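Our preliminary data section would be incomplete without showing what the modeling component actually yields. Below, a chain of 179 amino acids is followed by its predicted structure, encoded as tokens that our downstream tools consume directly.
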Amino acid sequence: MNGKSMDVSVKPIVYSALFIALISIGAMIAIPVGPVPIVLQNMFVLLSGLILPPAWAAGSEAVYLLMGFAGLPVFAGGTSGIGKVFGPTGGYLLSYLPAAFLTSVISGRAPKSLVRDYAAAVSGMAMIYLFGVPWLKWVLAVSWGKALAAGMYPFLIGAVLKIAAAVIIARKLRHLIRF
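Predicted structure:
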């Protein structure tokens, strides 16, 4: 095996590991504001979707989730365990895999445009809320209004900022990260 073929197969693994680490670090920056904390991990989920191909983006999220379920303290505030799935934030956690995949698919392999990147990131963030809010409603046994008030409305301004940051960072990094 020559060095070039080894380089091609190792790069996606290294980039995926980097995103797993970034998502884990983003989870450590958690501000409790109710049943759902403010975290940066969802920004890194979107960023992985904007940079990695779909299978690698989803794979990164799958490994991240498995690490947390296995007991490594990678979830919000350094928590872990399979029990987190059954708590108020379980839907948000489970959404990361399809959100990264969807973001990557929409972002696509074609030349990137700003509009396409924003559409991809907005779609990924919407996927997070589409999983997270109904799960929160079910776990807490509250009305839709209360679930939205606790699990989405307070986070919308932050979500817009995270989407913008993910798109800006992706557009700066893409020329460095090639598949």
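The chain has one domain: 3-173. The chain has a mean pLDDT of 92. Preliminary results of this kind motivate Aim 1 of the renewal.
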